[in-house]
Amino acid sequence: MLLAWDDKYSVNNYLIDEQHKKLFELANMADNMIGKQTNPTEIKKMLAALFEYMRTHFSDEEEYMRSIQYPMLESHQEKHKHIVSEMTNLVKNMGYDFKQKLVIIMEQWLLNHILKDDMGYARYVEEMNQERAKAAASAKKDDAPTNTQHNDMLKKAVMEPKQKQAPAKQKQKMHMYTCLCGKTYNIAPEIHAKIQAGEGVKCPDCTTFIKYITDIEA
């Protein structure tokens, strides 16, 4: 096993953390398959899935860094390109040293990239939040929603955890969504259906489209 997920690896963003967890899982599945001398075709399929998910994650991560105006974005993008290039070569050229190369790439990425590089923007956000808190303490500011229509839609769709609800006879199936700023929303089935049909809904704070994560009972 390459590495197990631990909460200490969190970057304090729900979407990015969930993607990191999934990538840990896929990387360890690939390593396990290779250790058991699985059919090379199956290994290649697993690596392709890992590779595609990695690219999706990098895209979302770069969009998030762009939204927070992270000063090290370009440097981070270059590291992403390097990892993608290494994985591309690995998938295309499965030689005798295949597993050794995989372990090197995964360790460099999982250990060095997530635990060091990704923690950089996590610290940056924390510092920005501290500065905002100080500014808010000295002068209160009214932050109006940037998109009234989407904000109203979310208010109707989201079940606030502190809001008193009438006693329910049975739990209702809800759909968890998140956005790049890390907030999570419990979306009602009728709104979920509209989103899945192509009607985009944006977070009122970071103005990025919310993304479906999983189903829950609430």
UniProtKB/TrEMBL annotation:
PANTHER family, per the entry: BACTERIOHEMERYTHRIN (PTHR37164:SF1)
Domain Hemerythrin-like per the UniProt entry, residue ranges: 14-123
Keywords recorded for this protein, A-Z: Iron, Metal-binding, Oxygen transport, Transport
NADP in keyword set: no
GO molecular-function terms, A-Z: metal ion binding; oxygen carrier activity
Organism of this sequence: Helicobacter saguini
Family: Belongs to the hemerythrin family.
Keyword Metal-binding: yes
Alphabetical list of SUPFAM superfamilies matching this protein: CSL zinc finger (SSF144217), Hemerythrin-like (SSF47188)
Name this protein carries in UniProt: Bacteriohemerythrin
